[in-house]
Design a protein that fits this description.
The protein is an alpha+beta fold. The chain has three domains: about 110 residues, no CATH class; about 90 residues; about 260 residues, 6 Propeller (Neuraminidase). The protein contains six helices and 31 strands. The strands form nine sheets. The chain has a four-stranded antiparallel sheet, with no helix packed on it. The protein has a four-stranded antiparallel sheet with strand order 14-15-18-19, with no helix packed on it. A four-stranded antiparallel sheet has the order 20-21-22-23, with no helix packed on it.
Length: about 525
């Protein structure tokens, strides 16, 4: 190489070599500088270090640079300059340094007429090697995760099977008790009938003996004996006592879809939306959850509780175990806000802070556990009710400063709200079935028709109800219509609350459970 001529001027002896192409270009010191200004990846070296230059096949060095005995198979780009190795030495090289991302190429790759700079190969191949290495690291973790999930599933199935067997044993024992209780009831009825029959017969005999002179009314005690009916009721109550244990097991295995939580401070009451039976749980710690806190499910058994009286605290509460975890706080204090979980995010609308109506909107990322601020509502409102329709989320709320209620629709696509309706007086509960949006407020039930392209919303009166409290109803826990019926937590703001049931088919509304805001029942 030292005796070679410069490849550009063809007259001067070459003192440098550049690896921008393969094989390297011989250059003199005069031609080197303008060459470095050309496009490409240049690595100029002294021509004296000719072992750094990669000769093409059949040009000079043909043997492995490690063992110096076997023919060259490939070279590796993990170091600069690369070294040519035979197949055995190349394998050993990779095994000795597994932490390095190797980039190997066969020698024939550079025998082609068109070649790219070696740095281009280096970057691309190291990226590919890094990607393969990452996959290799992730696969064992994924396999371990699958194994753990399988073990957890088997454990859970075992526990459920054990619970099932225990429940069946309990039911069998209760069946024996029920049969025994029914036998006692039958004996009581027979004894009562025999006693009453004997009393009647005696009375008739006396009546005949006195010449039909006794004019007293005949007292048929066997048909009016309430004491005996109470005894029978007590026997029946004992006989069906297994219902309470089966209910507890029902919640121990899994939360039913329509379970309705009612929370305050360190107490939880969980209602079954169908039977209205309640299970009571003491939370793992005291909280600031109060009558103005809005909450919704974020997982099968976890409720996110947001805000309350002059606070922005947020809690994640497990309704099965009672465990409480304090989450990231909202950006603003708010009470009586609207809340709804949409996919992996919880949206909180409006509310009130120190008597001031709010128009702000926030969302909580369930996985990231962080809050972010969204564009505001068109009108500030509190005592907000939220329900879902295919066209978006509908939010109703009341502003006691203007004595008006407004309904807006939130679009998940651009995360903005649009005003649809403004009416005088308090707001109420919203629920949606099909394209019908029901609004329950004051002493009336109103319905509006929804379409995806609507720009306004008009309600018509469908029925009347008995007004509760001041007629401002707040849906602190969002519900959904199931089989034409919805059951949820009713709060007439500032007065005791309870559970309501609304049937859209019969346009019927009723308060089915009353309580002075938990934990003490009326």
């Amino acid at each position: 190489m030292e005796a070679s001529q410069c490849s550009l001027c063809l007259t001067t002896q070459a003192k440098f070599a550049c690896s921008c192409v393969f094989p390297a270009i011989p250059l003199c010191e005069v031609c080197l500088l303008p060459h470095l200004d050309t496009e490409g990846t240049h690595i100029p070296v002294s021509s004296r270090k000719q072992e750094w230059i990669w000769p093409a096949p059949g040009e000079g060095l043909e043997y492995c640079e490690d063992c110096r005995a076997k023919p060259v198979f490939s070279f590796c780009l993990c170091s600069n300059p690369p070294k040519r190795r035979c197949e055995d030495c190349d394998t050993a090289h990779s095994q000795r340094t597994p932490q390095v991302y190797h980039s190997r190429h066969p020698i024939a790759a550079y025998a082609a007429a068109t070649r790219v700079p070696v740095e281009t190969y280096r970057k691309k191949q190291q990226y590919i090697s890094h990607f393969e290495f990452s996959i290799g690291e992730e696969l064992p973790r994924f396999d371990a995760f699958v194994k753990q999930v399988k073990e957890e599933l088997e454990t859970l199935l075992g526990e459920i099977t054990a619970m099932k067997e225990s429940l069946l044993d309990n039911l069998q024992a209760e069946r024996v008790k029920l049969v025994s209780a029914l036998g006692e009831i039958q004996q009581a009825i027979e004894a009562k009938r025999y006693t009453a029959s004997a009393n009647i017969t005696t009375y008739l005999d006396d009546y005949v003996e006195t010449g039909y002179q006794d004019m007293r009314e005949l007292d048929l005690e066997m048909f009016t004996g309430t004491i005996h009916l109470q005894e029978i009721r007590a026997l029946l109550w004992k006989a069906v006592s297994f219902a309470q244990s089966s209910y507890r097991l029902y919640y121990a295995v899994a939360r039913p879809v329509n379970a309705i939580p009612v929370l305050r401070d360190n107490s939880l009451r969980l209602y079954d939306g169908e039977t209205l039976q309640a299970a009571e749980i003491k939370l793992s710690q005291s909280t600031s959850i109060c009558a103005g806190t809005a909450y919704c499910y974020i997982q099968d058994n976890v409720v996110l509780c947001c805000g309350g009286s002059a606070q922005n605290r947020v809690y994640e509460v497990n309704v099965q175990s009672g465990e409480v975890v304090q989450a990231a706080e909202m950006n603003q204090n708010r009470e009586y806000a609207g809340i709804f979980k949409l996919k992996g995010e919880v949206l909180v609308f409006g509310g009130r802070m120190y008597g001031e109506m709010l128009d702000s909107v926030e969302k909580y990322a369930v996985r990231g556990k962080v809050w972010s601020v969204l564009p505001s509502l068109q009108r500030a409102k509190y005592a907000c009710s939220v329900c879902k329709h295919s066209s978006g989320l509908y939010i109703a709320g009341y502003s006691d400063l203007t004595a008006e209620s407004t309904i807006e629709v939130f679009s998940p696509l651009n995360e903005t709200c649009r005003l649809l309706s403004t009416v005088s007086g308090p707001s109420g509960i919203l629920c949606c079935e099909g394209n019908e949006l029901y609004h329950i407020r004051l002493n009336r039930i109103e319905v509006g028709n929804l379409t995806n392209s609507q720009v306004s919303l008009t309600f018509t009166k469908k029925g009347t109800i008995a007004q509760r409290g001041n007629g401002v109803y707040w849906l602190c826990f969002p519900t959904c219509v199931s089989n034409g019926e919805v059951v949820g937590v009713l709060t007439a703001v500032g007065v005791p609350c309870g559970l309501f049931r609304f049937n859209s088919a019969g346009v019927h509304f009723s308060q089915v459970v009353k309580f002075s805001y938990y934990p003490r029942a009326d």
